[in-house]
Each structure stands twice: as C-alpha cells, then as structure tokens.
Amino acid sequence: MSKVFLIVKRGVLLVLIFSAASIKAQRISDDEVSDKESPTGYILATGRRLPFLYAISLDEAINVANNNTANAIISRNKVALDRLDGQLLGDPANLLLSEEGETVYVINHHGSIDNGEFGQHGGRGQIAVLQVDALLDSRNDRTANALIRLMDSGGFGAIGAILLPDLLVVNNAENNLTEDGGNRIAFIDRRTGSLRSTVELSLGSPGFQCQDYPVPYVAPYGPPRNLTVLSSDPSFGCFPNPNGLAMGVSSDGTRYLFTANGGTDDVSVVDLERALAGDRGAELHRIPDQQGAWGIAATPDGKFIFVASGGSQRAATAGNTISVLDVDRARKSGDAEIARILVGTDDPQQASHPLILSVTPDGRELVVPNLRGDNVSIIDIELAVSGDATAEVARIPLTRLDGNPARPKGSAISPDGRYAIISGGSGSQPYSQELGYVYIIDLQTRSLVGTVVGVGNDPYGLAVVYR
C-alpha cells in the first residue's frame, strides 16, 4: 500500500508518494541511529579536602561487577595549579554545569589552599572553570589539563551558587580567617570573571545585634572585628553566613533569590531584579527555619523552595526537618513556611541533619541526604506542599565497607530522573586519603544499585552530564 502526500511550496504543488515498505525501512533506520547515539551518563563529584573533581562513569558505577570499587572512576582533575613544591591546592565543595553541559564551574570554598595546612575557616573563595570533555578524558587523570581559568568569588568561604545567562551568583558564607561574618552575595561575570555587583544581607537576629557594622558597607568602616572563629559558639547570630542558594519565581514571573542562613537560622528573600540593577540592599525580609539552614532547592517552576535544617552554628546540635516555602507568600512577608516535614528519623527529638537536597526534573520528588541519619529520604513534593506528615515516602540506609558512618552530604539527580547520586564521607585526615563514597540510588525501585569508593576525601557537590 502507498501513501500520497500533497505539499504546496512556493506556489508549486508537490506530490510525494511513499510506499509502506519505504516508511517501515525509514523507521528501522531511525531506530538504529537512535541506538547508536544513546548518550552515556557521567557523574562529576567534588573531592573537597582532596582537591580533585572526579569524573565517574554512571554505567560502570551501576555495573554489579564494580560495586564497592573505584573501577568506575575515569579521571581526577585538578581544580587549581599545584604549589611550586608540588602540593595539591584547592577546596572544591560545590559545582554547577553550564546550560549546554560544556563547562563546569567548581566552587573552591577556601580558594587555592593546602587543606592540611589551612586549619581554619575564612579563606578567599574561588571558582575554577573546567572543560567537561577534557575532564572526561582518562588521559588527563591527575592533571590540570581540563582547567581553563580561576575566578575570585568576591568574598570568603564561597559555597552556594546559581547560574544566570551571563552571571555566576555566589554566596560568601564567611569572613577573613573566621567562620562567622559572612553576609555577601556576589554577582560575577561568567566571561571575564569581573565582580559586577554585590548584595549585602542585613545583620542581626532575635537576641543579637551588630550595630557597629553598617549594611550596605560604607567606607571608612572595614570588616567587623572580634568575630567568632569557629562554630559552634553562642555568639553566632549577628551574621547570616549564607550557605545554599536557590532561585524562586512568583506567579507574575518576578525572580527572587533565597539564601539558607546558617548563622541566623533563617532564609533571606532577595529581589533579584533589584540586585541586578545594582541595589546592594535588595534583601526584602527573613523566613525563620528550624535551625542551621544549609541546603536549599527550588521546584522546576520556581514556585516552592525547600530548606534543609542542618547543623547549628550556635550549639552542637542539628535539625531534622525540611521547610517548605511558598514563593508568592515569601515575596510579601516572612510568613512563607507552609509546611515542615520530618526527615531521616521517626523521632522528632533525634537529629538527622539533612544537607544538600535535590528536586527531580519532573518536580515530583525531593531527595534528601541525612548526614547524621546515615540515610537518604525521598519526599513526595505534592504531599509535602499540602503539609502531609507522610510526605517522606521512602528512606534508604547507606553503609560503608569499613564500618564507619556513611555521612551522606551531597545529592544530584540524573537528567532523566532515574537515578539519585549521593556523596558521603567523614573528611578524616590525612586529607590525601581517598575516603569518600558515591552512592547511586534507583528512584524507580527505591534501591541502592551501585557504590563507588575512593572519591575524594569529603565529597560534597555533584552533577550528572551526558555525552
């Protein structure tokens, strides 16, 4: 049987005749091409205290023969040039893939430092820009061949970041050689590395005042003095120390930045349009959370924000909940938390310490690594938004071969939504030891399907790219 198609093109009637056999042949050919061009997934993991960016084959990681081995690791890529004596430098804690997946921006939390010697917080933050194809080449293992350039983060203790079309937006959570004193969001030109703008978050929280440091900063006042060097300490509470960063979108299309403030146990709401116009005081208000706000993520449509209550900077305690924020409410006031979901534990008094959470591409589920719970929570977002206490629909335990706690920290979701990637490790010295783990969870079966060992010393940030 033949099919006739009539097409008018530039006033000329074209008659196209296709036989059923030719159509079938064409479909077979397309299927064959599709099979040949099926993309391969790769995991990118920041090694943190061991300053490499790890490239891992996702296919090899879920191969049963490679379980609990380092066989899936393709290469380890330097995130800074070595010191002249050969010492590795860098502190890669977070990363962002460019929109087309050709470039990765790695956030060096304390810049190009030797983690063994730099025993305190408050290093100058830095962004390493690496070429993805080069870091996926095994011939570049343990080299800086993928490194394109380094950019300043505009402050100290860089960590949370998002990408805008021309800008990299970075939270600077600390101050010079101190874990306290961070209040700045930097806007960095992705092409030149230039600092284009900053937003300075207000100081103080209930019971704490910081009246000797004007915000926004005005000369001749310098950085605040006599700050607490390390948490936990009861004097924390003046400075927000912004950790994770996410972008929400209101119903009218206005964009807002949300910063997870570990120093003041709350979330800042920043008008992004005002910030992009150069307004350093674009922060609108604060939304309280349980404690120690750290990880933060938005739904794909930007309508809801999820905040993980991590470790307190005031006391040696940690949270166990996820706060659900409504962006339309957040733009108007600090009364924007519409639900608070217990994760990682059934005991409201037990700390599970949720950390770097991720939303699946379809916006249906939230993946939460619980550092002290040694498990991963899967949250049904529709149930969470409605305040349903049963929103945690699965809890997956994680273990290590050596019997030590898994300590899951980071998470990422494969673009097809099939797998959750989780990083974990204790960050023990000597930092030259590859003690980190990466776990692969099948979100369809709610099961652990692969474990990669030897991934850095204290891996945090993760991403998945296809080639």
List keywords for this structure.
single chain; 467 residues; mainly beta; 2 domains; seven-stranded antiparallel beta sheet; 6 helices; 43% strand
Tell me the structural class.
mainly beta
Straight-line distance between termini: 40 Å
Could you tell me the radius of gyration in angstroms? 24 Å
CATH first level of the largest domain: Mainly Beta
Strand content: 35-45%
State the helical fraction.
under 10%
Q: List the domain count as a whole number.
A: 2
Number of helices: 6
Largest sheet: 7 strands, antiparallel
State the CATH superfamily name of the largest domain. YVTN repeat-like/Quinoprotein amine dehydrogenase
- CATH topology-level name of the largest domain: Methylamine Dehydrogenase, Chain H
How would you sum up the global shape?
globular
Give average pLDDT, whole number: 91
Count of DSSP E strands? 29
- CATH-level-2 architecture of the largest domain: 7 Propeller
Low-confidence stretches: 1-35
